[in-house]
Write a structure and sequence with these properties.
Helix content: 40-55%
Order of helices and strands: HHEEEEHEHEEEHHHHHHHEEHHHHHHH
Radius of gyration: 35 Å
Strand content: 5-15%
Oligomer: single chain
Largest sheet: 8 strands, antiparallel
Number of strands: 10
């Protein structure tokens, strides 16, 4: 074995410890052993549900190189039966070295001949090695075809190459298992985050799909930005790790809402339910007192009183749920606070109390200043809750990005009033996604959902005129159509 071949063997160990992607890892394993063995073709199979599936395939003669990108070769899997050499190798846990496939009486090689007829390839020499982990669990098979001598002629695989391949296969099996364990742990964490985020959204019937929508839009927008960068010959904005980090931030951006009182999160009107009930009860008391006074002769304008009560109720009902309170409505409400009556205990009371007037005089939306501060505190609570999670290095920005999604470039966002370059690209994207879904959502108690066109117009105005959003990213978001199926 030459010094160069020894270096290649040692380099396999480096590859096994450095590659994160399972598909790229498997491809590198196969490329390395093909180079070491000087063979023309190779296949890496993985065992799944009692079948060996083609995962990575390389054939220099046929110029077939598939599987490294995650898309598997379009070839039927090999049944786990003794009629197939690769399956037999795995079932018996032994290396099989065949010098001439079509002149071998020791094994049934009809399966190999069949696959040759499907692919148009001619297999002569074959080396098949099983991959098993430390526990002896079967993972897959490495199969090399047509070793080549120095003159490029097909020759048998030397026995020493079988030993080398066994060593590589053993290391590869352990690495594959470790990568699978890591992927399983990551998926467990991701699924926990998705369930957690969904549970937060489901707390409120008015927020049930917000985070899910944002995650879908986010994935599509990231892919759009990458595709555009690729078209322009630029470096991708998001590699797989960066992409995962931003998507995780989206899933966790509203985690602070877990501790926001539902009566504030779900507040459909300016009045709280108990305030509404108390006001209507007071109006009913006014009617009854008026009827009593009328029967006792103390009141001779009952009809006018009933009309005034009805007008007061209609005014309050209208203002309670309106999108915007006008000056005329505010003045009418103020007049109601000046009207009084005397209850059965002789106490003088207002038709509309000062606290009720304060709630009804909220110009826009349904939250008072105090309630809005509580609602806005969800980003601070998001930061606090996420500080308790020990994120990996690859997810180290999740807490920072998730808790900053209400910051504006103009500096009038919250909670830290960040502005300009202090707001990262990832946060700018998250903010656009959040605003878009909030504008178009048709399940909010305090407003009807906007059409896509209206929402995009609002986003554009926030970027171009108000300077709150990143203009370039907003324009790209609009062009991406990432909200479409």
């Amino acid at each position: 074995m030459t010094e160069d071949e020894v270096k290649k063997i040692l380099n396999v160990g480096v590859l096994l410890s450095s590659e994160r992607s399972i598909n790229k890892l498997l491809e590198k394993i196969l490329i390395s052993v093909m180079e070491i063995s000087h063979c023309d073709a190779g296949t890496l199979y993985l065992l799944e549900e009692e079948e060996l599936h083609f995962v990575i395939m390389r054939n220099n003669t046929m110029k077939t190189y598939s599987g490294g990108d995650g898309r598997r070769p379009d070839i039927p899997p090999v049944p786990l039966s003794r009629e197939n050499v690769c399956a037999l190798s795995l079932m018996d846990g032994r290396t099989i070295n065949i010098a001439d496939v079509r002149n071998c009486s020791e094994y049934n090689l009809s399966g190999s001949v069949k696959y040759d007829s499907m692919t148009g390839y001619y297999t002569k020499s074959m080396l098949t090695v099983p991959m098993q982990n430390r526990k002896g669990e079967k993972l897959g098979v490495l199969q090399l075809l047509n070793a080549m001598d120095a003159d490029g002629n097909i020759c048998p695989f030397p026995d020493e190459m079988a030993l080398v391949l066994q060593s590589v296969a053993s290391q590869a099996a352990i690495t594959i298992q470790n990568v699978r364990y890591i992927d399983e742990i990551k998926e467990l964490f991701h699924s926990f985050v998705r369930v957690f985020a969904s549970a937060i959204d489901e707390r409120s019937p008015y927020n049930g799909n917000h985070t899910k929508h944002m995650a879908v839009y986010g994935e599509k927008f990231i892919d759009y930005l990458n595709a555009k960068a690729q078209e322009e010959g630029k470096e991708l904005l998001f590699d797989s790790i960066h992409r995962e980090e931003l998507i995780m931030s989206i899933w966790l951006h509203d985690v602070g809402k877990l501790v926001i009182p539902l009566e504030i999160m779900d507040k459909p009107a300016r009045f709280l339910p108990e305030q509404h009930s108390e006001f209507l009860h007071r109006m009913e008391v006014l009617r009854l007192l008026g009827e009593i006074d009328s029967l006792s002769g103390k009141c001779d304008d009952l009809d006018d009183l009933i009309k005034d009560i009805k007008k007061a109720e209609e005014l309050v009902e209208s203002v309670n749920t309106t999108k915007y309170v006008t000056d005329e409505e505010l003045e009418a409400l103020k007049q109601l606070t000046k009207r009084t009556y005397t209850d059965k205990n002789g106490e003088v009371k207002q038709w509309l109390t000062e606290d009720e007037y304060k709630m009804l005089s909220i110009r826009k939306g349904t939250l008072s200043d105090e309630e809005r501060k509580i609602m806005e505190s969800h980003v601070v609570l998001t930061d606090k809750l996420l500080s308790q999670i020990q994120f990996s290095k690859e997810l180290s920005h999740v807490r920072e990005w998730a808790s900053a999604h209400h910051e504006y470039l103009s500096g009038d966002g919250y909670p830290k009033h960040l502005s300009g370059m202090k707001i990262s690209m990832e946060v700018r994207i998250l903010t656009i996604l959040d605003i878009f879904d909030a504008l178009t959502a048709d399940d909010r108690p305090y407003k009807p959902g906007m059409s896509i066109e209206q929402a995009l117009s609002v986003l554009k105005d926030m970027a171009d005129t108000e300077r709150k959003l990143d203009k370039k990213l907003t324009d790209l978001f609009i062009k991406s159509h990432c909200w479409e199926n």
